[in-house]
Amino acid sequence: MVSEHKTANANFESLLRIFTVPEGPDSTLTRIEEELSRNLNQFLREHIVAEEKPLKQIEKDFCDARIPDEPVFVSDHTQHLLDTLVAQSVHTASPSFIGHMTSALPYFMMPLSKIMIALNQNLVKIETSKAFTPLERQVLGMLHRLIYGNDDSFYQQWMHSAEHSLGAFCSGGTIANITALWVARNSALKADGDFHGVEKEGLFKAMRHYNYDGLAILVSERGHYSLKKAADVLGIGQDGLVLVRTDEHNRICPDDLQAKITELKARNIKPFAVVGVAGTTETGNIDPLQAIARICQQEQCHFHVDAAWGGATLMSGNYRHLLDGIELADSVTIDAHKQLYIPMGAGMVLFKDPHAMNSIEHHAQYILRKGSKDLGSHTLEGSRSGIAMLVYASMHIISRAGYELLIDQSIAKARYFADLIRAQADFELVSQPELCLLTYRYLPQQVKTAMHQADSSQRAQLNALLNELTKFIQKKQRETGKSFVSRTRLNPICWDKLDTIVFRVVLANPLTTNEILHSVLEEQREIATLAPLLMGRIERLTQQILA
Amino acid sequence: MVSEHKTANANFESLLRIFTVPEGPDSTLTRIEEELSRNLNQFLREHIVAEEKPLKQIEKDFCDARIPDEPVFVSDHTQHLLDTLVAQSVHTASPSFIGHMTSALPYFMMPLSKIMIALNQNLVKIETSKAFTPLERQVLGMLHRLIYGNDDSFYQQWMHSAEHSLGAFCSGGTIANITALWVARNSALKADGDFHGVEKEGLFKAMRHYNYDGLAILVSERGHYSLKKAADVLGIGQDGLVLVRTDEHNRICPDDLQAKITELKARNIKPFAVVGVAGTTETGNIDPLQAIARICQQEQCHFHVDAAWGGATLMSGNYRHLLDGIELADSVTIDAHKQLYIPMGAGMVLFKDPHAMNSIEHHAQYILRKGSKDLGSHTLEGSRSGIAMLVYASMHIISRAGYELLIDQSIAKARYFADLIRAQADFELVSQPELCLLTYRYLPQQVKTAMHQADSSQRAQLNALLNELTKFIQKKQRETGKSFVSRTRLNPICWDKLDTIVFRVVLANPLTTNEILHSVLEEQREIATLAPLLMGRIERLTQQILA
């Protein structure tokens, strides 16, 4: 018994070392970290295997649900992580990976993140975050001012007010959108007479009190899928997410929005929120925000703008006009981990009215006491990291001028790529870039002519084959690992709204060069030749149509 | 015009450097990072100012809502961060800060976090996370197995199944609890006949279809405040969160639970979920999970266990019996950023039934396509970081044996502190440690005697003065900066359930020594003498009662 105790104590002493003694300068982990600090791009190039390994095979390295009984050395495990995890991760920072919204990070993010992790603050309350709380409130103030442009006295009054909040930091745009619609729902069904508000009595009693037969959120057909989740979670139901028609530029049609609202009201369904999209996920287009704002004011709807992607455009004096009307929104979502180049996990929602979030305020005894400035009383999440610090640092180190350059260059690059695609006889630009996103597909000239001349049945048939081809090219290109574009499905008006699979390109990585864009097309053209059977079927149908 | 372009290009070239050229070895940021790597504890001790600066004064450094127009140098800004932010942050890793659930981190977390940030994966889909997706699935499998202990073939079948998910990573326990109750709500109000399910048609139609007058979630009086948020967000309403009586050990009374359920049903209110607490936030007590499970089975309620804090206890062969019955839960919340010693932002929810999460499954065109293994189809959040990597690494480097030691030592330390408090004539242990949490207050012997002899009015009066004293001591101790305990309000049965302010202590930091515990009491005793007026009033009332 005594010796057992002694062993336990000795083991504990050695365990304490992982809390008190850093890895030695020669340890694998320190070596890797230094390598990474010296040249991140080289580190990623050297350690991430380019060619794709089938997922089934990767899973073999991660198939044991048992928690190891005995410890392993840090260095051994680090090597294991390099071999199995890092090697098979995605090189999101690669300049030729232009298919998603995650791109390169500025170098200073890495050491600053380490400081953030080492401090391990919890932003839910001041007791575990102190200066991080005013810092986060300032960052929210900065984004609020970027959107709404109020004067200094406004921010003096509200930014650090205990009973108010100009917005909330969230893990991402989804939680930001849910938070905005939560606020909107609670405001639409607020306390009234005997009724104590939806937050207290729930949705069922709220509906009976207000005598509605349903609730609705309206958004364009191109709205983000997180809104469907929001409608589900908030008890509205996905059927309550009403999709509004878009025009040929993927922008909401205000007439259809108005018509849908009128129709809903006639059915005694309350349209309590309209979501304008500022940068659709698939094509980067921006809804006519002013027109939506006018309708929302008239109809007394909450007007939310999902600018998770496009919000950073406000940093550019040259392009912020694209988002005109955003200052009329009741709430706005912006993701700092997208075009503000912050690591994953930094979403925000901002509210025009400093009182708006009171409808979701909550308190608890041991924290978030009434009158405290704890941020946790106005967030959907509880414990949260101090990632606001990275946004704050970027605002100073990159500054507005730097972000303007980044935004402008991304848009310029997208326009360059659009022109390049247009200049190819065998590609079709499907959506033009408004921000730095565009979509296109491989479409040999003869096939294009056939698509135009075909009757509707032939066109659908040919289009289906083209979809298969686009899918094939996209997958093959990803597997080869030289470059990556994503794919999605659109319904272009010019092709009778047929389901059309397209390549989707996001040009936010400042390291992506024009040469890379040329070679992406070149590679796709080559890959097409690797599908002779499919190409043969496309050719035969083309001949048939043109005959 | 030409020269303007030239300038823009030159500026862009210099901006590109922040993406391509790391900080030099002599830069302030590199220097700080190295300092931090060499000796984290010293770094924190040297850079965090111990004595508290009033929040109002800290806010002065964070009062400008304007985004700077011009960039500043990385080094200059780093110095600014050290002076204004780091200096005024909270030393959460300090062994004498025993008031919150955020404590020291193992050293290897810092370099591993940096690799995680540098890889910047997005776990929402495989396209941006590849090997991180199977890794996260394995970590969920490990925690699932820790709770439910199924055999290998179970995990072989389900862990990597595209259409299933054993749980979800979340930013924290709040989102984990919301996710569990979202699943429970959707299952209770699932599609049935003409009705397409609450996720499609919303709560109002669901209630009419099932003919309920209300919904309820039951939890003990000591449940976490996030459940109130969950009830609000999910449209149940906070009134639908029904609080069940607890016994003298802060554990739910099964009889009262059963009585409340019966009463709800008599009112045609559907009790769709019961939450058992495994480690209450304030006192660390564990509900009788087996008894709750029996009631839930009988009443066909979803049984959720909020083990955000206590879940890690399952790692200890010596104490896992405290959570007996957790394996009967339909879902369990565990926070890895608590007793698994992971940096902030790593919550998890696990489901017994691999099909459970199908009720909240969602898909989108460009990602999360049906049949894909994208994790995003089963999470409330969208884009998410690869923090699962840190849990995975800890499971290997610390291992079950190491976690067992950590858990055991924390509980041993709490018992030691409890004995120490009991041995003092002038302190009162208010809640005994079941895990590593306890609460107590400063209560001189004579005052204690008076509390016992007082009539109920005098007792309430004296207790109110003691509350003021506890508050004073806690605040003063925090401000002085040598040590920190938190405070909360309990209603001890032995004091007629009077509102009682207590010191709350969490002993999870492996670096906290017995000496520190002694000096915490010593300091509190001394601080009490700094409130002579208040102490005078307490003494006079005591004399009056004892006279």
Automatic annotation (TrEMBL), chains A, B:
<dbReference type="InterPro" id="IPR015421">
    <property type="entry name" value="PyrdxlP-dep_Trfase_major"/>
</dbReference>
<protein>
    <submittedName>
        <fullName>Pyridoxal-dependent aspartate 1-decarboxylase</fullName>
    </submittedName>
</protein>
<dbReference type="InterPro" id="IPR015422">
    <property type="entry name" value="PyrdxlP-dep_Trfase_small"/>
</dbReference>
<dbReference type="InterPro" id="IPR022517">
    <property type="entry name" value="Asp_decarboxylase_pyridox"/>
</dbReference>
<dbReference type="InterPro" id="IPR015424">
    <property type="entry name" value="PyrdxlP-dep_Trfase"/>
</dbReference>
<keyword id="KW-0663">Pyridoxal phosphate</keyword>
<dbReference type="InterPro" id="IPR002129">
    <property type="entry name" value="PyrdxlP-dep_de-COase"/>
</dbReference>
<keyword id="KW-0456">Lyase</keyword>
<comment type="similarity">
    <text>Belongs to the group II decarboxylase family.</text>
</comment>
<dbReference type="GO" id="GO:0016831">
    <property type="term" value="F:carboxy-lyase activity"/>
</dbReference>
<dbReference type="GO" id="GO:0019752">
    <property type="term" value="P:carboxylic acid metabolic process"/>
</dbReference>
<keyword id="KW-0210">Decarboxylase</keyword>
<feature type="modified residue" description="N6-(pyridoxal phosphate)lysine">
    <location>
        <position position="338"/>
    </location>
</feature>
<dbReference type="Pfam" id="PF00282">
    <property type="entry name" value="Pyridoxal_deC"/>
</dbReference>
<dbReference type="GO" id="GO:0005737">
    <property type="term" value="C:cytoplasm"/>
</dbReference>
<dbReference type="GO" id="GO:0030170">
    <property type="term" value="F:pyridoxal phosphate binding"/>
</dbReference>
